[in-house]
């Protein structure tokens, strides 16, 4: 009886050991990988497989999950590095880089400190790119600079199984001496523009005055030309009349001028009484006769 009991106990112990072993094998052979991670599996110390999200099976005791890598996007701590622009201006660049791991096997076996390596790479690329640009270009073409930095960083970290998703330049700082020099330059530029504007205004004023004088001279010359043409026409008419009517036409013109002069003299203030010599009266008489004869 005792032997039977011992046999049953032995069988139960074996069963329990076997069940425990099966549970351990199942536990070690089934790996459930979260959506945000990938597992790197080694077999006898060498890379065997990379497990993606979901249920995965491995060989217990032969395969071992050596690394659990997060594939979420990461942000490096903000970094500040000094750089010298193409026109020899010292600037401080604040940068921030975002990346994520695409191939964990490369990241694990090719680089030890991935964050430090990316930060060092970014610092070197930023200094190199800033050195190709003048300060004004750095300030005005920041988007282009960011794009170039991101492309260069992507090429540099490609062997590490990393994708650089974003690279940002948070700020471009200058030392106080450079700021003061830039402020002086800005004030000088404003003063120059004001002087140029004032000079252009004065130039325009002179041009307008010259145009006005030229216009007045042209109008005066035109008036004199019209007056000269009128006088020439009148002279031509008189000459033609003299040619056709002889001396009578000339006497008529002289008599007409005498009458006009006498009329103008009589219209003046305080000059209503006019003493005319007898010879003048005879001339006027002849003129009146001529006028009467002409009419």
UniProtKB/TrEMBL annotation:
GO terms for cellular component: plasma membrane; side of membrane. Its main location: membrane. It is found in: Membrane. Gene3D superfamilies: Band 7 domain. Keywords: Membrane, Transmembrane, Transmembrane helix. InterPro entries: Band7/mec-2_domain, Band_7, Band_7/SPFH_dom_sf, Stomatin_HflK_fam. It is a single-pass membrane protein. This is SPFH/Band 7/PHB domain protein. It comes from Tritonibacter aquimaris.
